[in-house]
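Progress report, Aim 2. The chain analyzed during this reporting quarter is listed below.
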Amino acid sequence: MQIISRIGCEVCGSNLFFQIRDMHKSIITVTLILLFYHVAVAQTKTLDDYLSQALNNSPLLKDYRGQIASGAVDSALIRATYKPQVNGNSYNSYSPTIKGWGYDYAITNGANVNALVGVNKALVSQRYLQAQLETVSLQNKGIENTSKISEQDLKRTIIAQYITAYGDLEQLAFTKEILSLLTREDTLLKLLTQKNVYRQTDYLTFLVTRQQQELVVQQQLLQYKTDLATLNYLSGLVDTSTIFLAIPAIAMEALPGADKSVFFNQYTIDSLKLTNQKNVLDFSYKPKVNLFADAGYNSSLAETPYKNFGTSFGFNITVPIYDGQQRKLKYKKIDIAERTRSQYKDFFTSQYNQQIIQLLQQLKNTQALIDQINNQVKYSEGLIQVNEKLLSTGDVRIADLVIAFNNYLISKNLLTQNKVSRLQIINQINYWNR
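Predicted structure tokens for the chain:
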């Protein structure tokens, strides 16, 4: 009813409708200026900025670096274990006999006082020591490899979110472009409507379209801010300002063979670990020799205690004879682990090759679709230009003009979506490039 009333006022020659429209236009313009102000003055950040911040702030990567440093200490501890161990010991006791009651003197000697410095040294072969050091080294290599995979995971996540936020920014840019075109046509259409070239209903149809576009601009700006906040969160940044994102410099990189990637390398390290476990197990069943010596004071205080300073030394040997077939059972567990590892490796290789083929095919199809959409965008732009020329002479229907703008908007949206999809696919492919 309000629209009909406004149209009636215009038919009577009143300018009330356009005054209200101009007031509404001014309000929207001010709102958009405020919305875009922060974006216009914001700094620009690149993908590399976010990647470096994310890698520096990641507590998981810091944890892995700490574990690797700890592994270096473990190697030093193993070496220190087989160096001579020196200990000071003192044992002092007195066993009195009262009225014939007390411990057997032959056992206790009445008293025992000693203060000794003892030295122990385990004799191990250099191969056994290297096997134990290799255990720590392989653990560190496994942690280092896991750290690289986690770094790839983090990069993929940051790049994917950056592409998403950049896609929002691109959509916002061309939506503003459409709004600018609609605003330009609004001025011309207003004059033509005042001259009765077009009806008030035609102008209202156009006005509703422009207002919808204004709402879309605001919605997309909010979406961009939301995705940008998520990008900051994933990167470990505390930043609530609106930032321009530079074009993501993402190119498809050469992929290593499946057996050369860090993802495959984990299976190689696991294989070396199992081999090393067998070596350590073999060495644990070899004879063990331990040297010992001590020096100091050891006396029962029974006779010439001042002469009881001395020394002693010797060695002991341990020879494994029978352990209830534990060694055989441990070998069996290692063999089971090796078969499991081999099955995982084969499955990974198959999945790796299949996934790369699928991603490359998706990339090819997406690029072909982008080329088609680019042609559609050109046709849509040409149709808008033709309609703009016809608008000045009143030879185009407003409904056709609105349809042309909508088609252009749909084409541009589809183009941006597929460009974003293309970058996301490249990101997925590059994930396997290390």
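The chain has two domains: 2-82+124-285+320-430, 85-123+287-319. Residues 1-21, 23-41 have pLDDT under 50 and may be disordered. These observations will guide the mutagenesis work planned for the next reporting period.
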